[in-house]
Design goal:
The chain is α+β, with helices and mostly antiparallel strands. It folds into two domains: 230 residues, Glutamine Phosphoribosylpyrophosphate, subunit 1, domain 1; 94 residues, Alpha Horseshoe (Serine Threonine Protein Phosphatase 5, Tetratricopeptide repeat), CATH 1.25.40. It is built from eleven helices and eleven strands. The radius of gyration is 24 Å and the shape is elongated.
Length: 344
């Protein structure tokens, strides 16, 4: 393994981390390559303009290496014997007005070891480009399509147990319903069902950004989830995505309360708890928000549920009035603190 790392580093000078590199020759600094052989998808959702990238690999912490995305600019997956700089530099070029194809062509021309790379890019206009180098470890393929709904995407895989993984991913993406994150996750699950990485599974990541460019692009990151090391990374990624959506519902509920829409807030809180029924944090802060809105009676069963998950939640409730985060009248506070814990 070390001899291969040395060979590729001499040929290509790959970067070793997720930081951006300068725009000079990509092979000018010799550093070890990474065997992030994997499968991934890049996509642009036609309806929303959202851009995304999702990946799974038998490699520790794939998240900082393969997926790159910027709101209103594009998304990149850089894998196989990875040159990480394809990610930040690809985004730089697309931000400057180059198409995905132009950006990828320029970077492969500058790379003395492009034959080891597998890279896919999609830009904000839905133009997609893919490169699978001739020395990517078999089975290595890619599939680039326009879905029937107009969404543009590319699926790519290398070191797979058998052929056909990108095609299975593409079919799943086209057939799946829901938002971009759900469709990309469906593509990853289809890859695993089709045989997946010959080495197995270890880590995964999923990123979705807005299709609108901003002077503060970090605000356009809609989903950013990573599974660093897990025997079933896609199951864990699915769990994290559900939890992410639960917190989104919580945030929307809080906004509804700020605008005086108590019924709307209740709907959001119930949706959040349905997505994460065993999550004490979700239940507790929903109870606090209701109490602060004057809906103390409705908050009490939720406080009881939270206390049933541990008396630390009762102690936390006791501390909130002193910092103006639980603003119910004193008699209501007493009832909140005295409510019996619900049995689990």
């Amino acid at each position: 393994m070390r001899s291969i790392w040395l060979l590729v580093s001499l040929l290509a000078g790959c970067t070793t981390g997720g930081s951006a590199v300068s725009s000079h020759d990509m092979s000018s600094e010799a550093q070890p390559a990474r065997f992030v052989s994997t499968y991934s998808i890049v996509a642009r959702d036609k309806a929303t303009g959202q851009l995304g990238v999702a990946v799974q690999s038998h490699w520790f912490s794939v998240g900082p290496i393969v997926p790159w995305a910027e709101a209103g600019v594009g998304a990149v997956a850089t894998q196989s014997l990875v040159n990480v700089s394809y990610g930040p530099r690809g985004l730089d070029l697309m931000r400057a007005g180059h198409s995905a194809d132009e950006a990828l062509r320029q970077l492969t021309l500058e790379d003395n070891a492009e034959f080891y790379r597998q890279v896919a890019m999609v830009d904000a206009r839905g133009r997609v480009a893919v490169h699978t180098g001739r020395k990517c470890i078999p089975e290595a393929q890619h599939e680039c399509r326009m879905a029937p709904d107009g969404s543009a995407f590319a699926c790519q895989a290398n070191m797979m147990a058998k052929k056909g993984v990108p095609q299975a991913m593409a079919a799943a993406f086209e057939a799946s319903q829901g938002d971009l994150a759900s469709r990309m996750l469906a593509a990853l699950e289809a890859a695993e069902a089709a045989g997946g990485d010959i080495r197995g599974r270890q880590s995964a990541a999923l990123v979705v950004v807005s299709g609108e460019r901003s002077s503060e692009p970090w605000k356009g990151t809609l989903v950013e989830l990573r599974v660093e090391d897990d025997p079933e990374p896609l199951k864990e990624l699915s769990r994290l995505l559900a939890l992410h959506r639960a917190y989104q519902e919580m945030n929307e509920g809080d906004l509804a309360l700020e605008h005086g829409d108590v019924e709307g807030a209740l709907r959001r809180y119930h949706a959040a708890m349905a997505l994460a029924p065993d999550h004490a944090e979700m239940v507790f802060w929903s109870a606090v928000a209701l109490a602060n809105a004057g809906r103390v009676e409705e908050s009490l069963p939720l406080f009881a549920r939270a206390y049933g998950k541990g008396e630390q939640w009762r102690e936390l409730a006791r501390r909130l009035p002193g910092v103006d985060l639980l603003s119910a009248p004193p008699e209501a506070i007493e009832r909140i603190l005295a409510v019996p814990a619900a049995e689990e």
